[in-house]
Design brief:
It is built from 13 helices and 17 strands. By secondary structure, it is an alpha+beta fold.
Length: 371
């Protein structure tokens, strides 16, 4: 069933007698068992104020439509949402509601923050069919539940988003990428850490072990980028790596591929993402024994391609972080998609579910399983 208005959504939720499978573009692997309820019909930009750097859109609005509108005014989505259709093997259309429901944040996250940090307001329907609105078009302190932050990353388990208000940023004049060649994993992570501690405003840092290439992106005015690239070269010359620079166009292509994990497209195996402290990333990757892996967020995010059915969590043991099963080739396997919650967090989650979805219509248990 495809919803085309908030009123239809309210009626569908109130009438539901069994779990619903909420879907936007169905490109993130979030939908679970239950009657399909597509929000892709809730589309359109309701308000755009370039001077105020704010935009309001219906949840089913394609991300591409928003990016095109922003580009016409020299602006962009700062959190750089990924497009994982090729990685997940699906062909839907990514929606802005799905981006915020999964808190999808790309390589720029370590510099500017996650998607939720740019979400100003939400409008959603809870599990009893109540329409709830929180936030607005400006950042301000609130009392009680901060529903804006709560809904971002909730993966549709607390309510069905119908509208989002967000902050956007200007597109920089240019960008460039400094490439360090032939570093192993520990040396690359140390170099990325050094670059991130520098005053040269690195906006993304990644390492591809297969290519033994480490990437550092800088953005801004052309004269500033040129100067900072030169200073960064001086700073990192002691690593012994060969240094190269990529201009704006090849740099943009490179980071789009890193953002979308293009190296894993069409490759067999399960795909995991591990969030961890960069200082332990190389050791965790070695312990995982992956068929292939990549580092983003200066080592704070590891993408791993594993043999089908591998229980990566059991293999890694305890560490300060968590592992998410993004893609499972074996649809019959029962490995949890999300890291099991600690007892205290689980109690908080259950309390929120009881408040916003007491009938269990949005079926968090199904969404926790691997697709």
């Amino acid at each position: 069933m495809t919803i085309t208005s908030e009123t239809e959504l309210v009626d569908a939720i109130r009438a539901a007698q069994a779990p619903l499978s909420l879907r936007g573009g169905n490109t993130r692997g979030m939908a679970g068992p239950g009657a399909d309820l597509s929000l892709a019909g809730l589309r359109g930009i309701s308000l755009y104020e370039p001077g105020a750097l704010t935009l309001v859109a219906q949840a089913g609005t394609p991300v591409s439509e928003i990016e095109t509108t922003l580009a016409a005014e020299g602006q962009r989505l700062a959190f750089e949402p990924s497009d994982h259709r090729a990685l997940m093997g699906c062909s839907g259309t990514p929606t802005i509601g799905g981006v915020f429901a999964a808190n999808v944040s790309g390589p720029r996250r370590l510099a500017v923050g996650a998607a939720r940090d740019f979400l100003l307001g939400v409008r959603f329907v809870d599990g009893q069919g109540n329409v709830i609105k929180n936030g607005g078009r400006v950042m301000k302190n609130v009392t009680g539940y901060d529903l804006v932050k709560l809904l971002a990353g909730s993966r549709g388990t607390l309510g069905a988003l119908t509208e989002v208000s967000l902050k956007v940023l200007p597109e920089p004049e240019t960008s460039a990428t400094l490439v360090l060649c032939d570093l192993d994993d520990p040396a690359a992570i140390a170099a990325m850490a050094q670059a991130m501690r520098s005053p040269f405003e690195v906006t993304a840092a990644a390492h591809d072990p297969a290519q033994r290439r480490t990437y550092l992106r800088l953005e801004g005015f052309e004269t500033s980028v040129t100067y900072r690239i030169g200073r960064l070269k001086d700073l990192l010359s002691a690593t012994g790596a060969a240094l190269e620079s990529l201009a704006a166009n090849p740099s943009a292509t490179l980071w789009r591929d890193l953002r979308d994990v293009a190296a894993f497209h069409g490759a067999a195996g399960d795909v995991w993402r591990v969030h961890c402290r960069p200082t332990v990333a190389a050791a965790l990757a070695a312990k995982a024994g992956a068929e292939a892996h990549l580092y983003d967020w200066a080592g704070g995010l590891i993408w791993l391609r594993m043999a089908p059915g591998t229980d990566l969590r059991a293999r890694l043991g305890r560490y300060d972080g968590h592992a998410t099963l993004s893609r499972a080739n074996d649809v019959a396997q029962a490995l949890p998609r999300q890291e099991p919650e600690a007892p205290g967090v689980a109690r908080l989650t259950a309390g929120l579910r009881a408040k916003f979805d007491p009938r269990g219509i949005f079926n968090a248990e199904a969404l926790a399983l691997a697709p």
